[in-house]
Amino acid sequence: QVQLVQSGAEVKKPGASVKVSCKASGYTFTSYGISWVRQAPGQGLEWMGWISAYNGNTNYAQKLQGRVTMTTDTSTSTAYMELRSLRSDDTAVYYCARYGGDYWGQGTLVTVSS
Amino acid sequence: QSVLTQPPSASGTPGQRVTISCSGSSSNIGSNTVNWYQQLPGTAPKLLIYSNNQRPSGVPDRFSGSKSGTSASLAISGLQSEDEADYYCAAWDDSLNGRRVFGGGTKLTVL
Fold first, then answer.
1. What DSSP state is assigned to residue A104?
2. A110 near A90, Cβ under 8 Å?
3. DSSP structure string for chain B
4. Has residue B85 got a pLDDT over 80?
5. Closest Cα of chain A to B35: distance in Å?
6. A47, A51, A52, A57: which to substitute to probe chain B, counting the most B Cβ within 10 Å?
7. I want to staple B92 with a disulfide (CB 3.0 to 4.6 A). Which of A76, A114, B25, B32 is the partner?
8. Which residue ranges of chain A lie beneath pLDDT 70?
9. B102 contacts on A by Cβ (under 8 Å)
């Protein structure tokens, strides 16, 4: 069965970076892209961007351009999302999802606090 | 401010039928398919409806979706207490080299 398993919770200080991983199993990794979506406490879903696991092409949300980098490691079927220059309003649960969202990871809580 | 517009809340009694609307534009719902997600408290979103009106395996047929023009809707018939959750619509948007857009979410309360 398709599974996306994410790395554990992180606590970071403002200005730091965080890198969240998402390990896929149960399907051919390079056949689907991976989307990243975040959800601030008590808020709705916000699309962060998408990476093709086939060729590494990316498309980032305009508001995160310059701060976010999405990568994949096809040898381990793992996708990564790095967010830099963290601010308090980056505190959220970060989800990876297969392409348009038919399968989701369990979420990773990233807390940004001094 | 979400690109897709949903009512913030909806409610119904057990057994009732409720609908949740999702309004967009020609660059998203008007030209792409719509997915619906159910999110129970403290859990990841779960795909409920894809391609406007298709149910993934395991989703009860009490859930149905439809789309017309630049709007979509989710209907839940035979409402049950376990349906109490947040519901989100989503679609790809053709602007800005393609992006995924979500509705703001609708909190469904079963009275």
1. B
2. yes
3. --SBB--SEEEE-TT--EEEEEE--TTTTTTS-EEEEEE-TTS--EEEEBTTTBPPTT--TTEEEEEETTEEEEEE-S--GGG-EEEEEEEEESSTT-EEEEB--EEEEE-
4. yes
5. 8
6. A47
7. B32
8. none
9. 37, 44-47
- Say if CB B57 and CB B32 are below 8 A apart: no
Cβ neighbours of residue A78 closer than 8 Å, sequence gap 6 or more: A21, A22, A23, A24, A72
- Lookup: tokens for A96: 């990876």
Angle at CA of residue B104, ends B99 and B105, nearest 5°: 120
Token reading at A86:
């963290």
CB of A76 closer than 8 Å to CB of A23: yes
> How confident is the model over B59-75, as pLDDT tens digits?
999 999 999 999 999 99
Per-residue pLDDT tens over the stretch A55-88: 999 999 999 999 999 999 999 999 999 999 999 9
